[in-house]
Amino acid sequence: MKQQIAQIVNNLDPISLNEMDGVSLMKRTDTKFIIHQQQLIEVLKTITNQYKVLEINKNRLLTYSSLYFDTENKKFYHDHHNGKVNRTKVRMRKYMESNSCFLEIKQKDGKGKTTKSRIQIKDFETELSQNLVEFINSKTSEKFNLKPSIWNKFDRITLVNKHAMERLTIDLNLEFNMETSSKSYKNLAIIEVKQQRFDRTSPVVKSLKKIGINPYSMSKYCIGMTNIYPELKYNRFKRKIIKINKITA
């Protein structure tokens, strides 16, 4: 499947990081879909003329590595689990092909809007430096005592709509680990459509709809946490975990 996906993606027109600046969408609506990688192949075949693909150093399947932070009592995880509409995630993310690393803060409001703030750093820091603590405090208007909570890694394809203010990410080969615990989802594809507001006329949304795939809210962070920390309460995510396991079986 990986070879088939790569073959389709390699036939798309490329777009560079600099060219993507116009569709950075730091304030946006994110809409997720989860499918088996075999279904992804069929979807990609139907939208090849509508999108360009991000290419960095001749690579189109890009590797991302992330380190998430949370409080001692896992506040960010529990806020999501308990349905709090105003939520925060803090992570460091390294874009392996460009060898660039950022501390990123994602904040979701009660209207479904996501705001992302970030600052470039040299590399992963398992202990937050003072300037990063101050950056987090300034963006969240709160003071947290944050520690590393989970690592994750995945391969990503980023597509940019040729005709609309839209881009989408496709995450494959998702892995989580922390100390001696690990979990991977090899057959899963997570599609995330990023728009100023959700538009059902999007080529990829229409293609997914045709095969019966509707938007499905899920958090990679929360799913990973339930696997790495089995003692965490996860009632709210139980149905999502069952669905993901069924897709990847």
From TrEMBL:
Residues 27-227 form the VTC domain. InterPro entries: VTC_domain, VTC_sf. One of its GO terms (biological process) is polyphosphate biosynthetic process. It comes from the Bacteria. Pfam families: VTC (PF09359). CDD domains: PolyPPase_VTC_like. This is VTC domain-containing protein. It comes from Lutibacter agarilyticus.
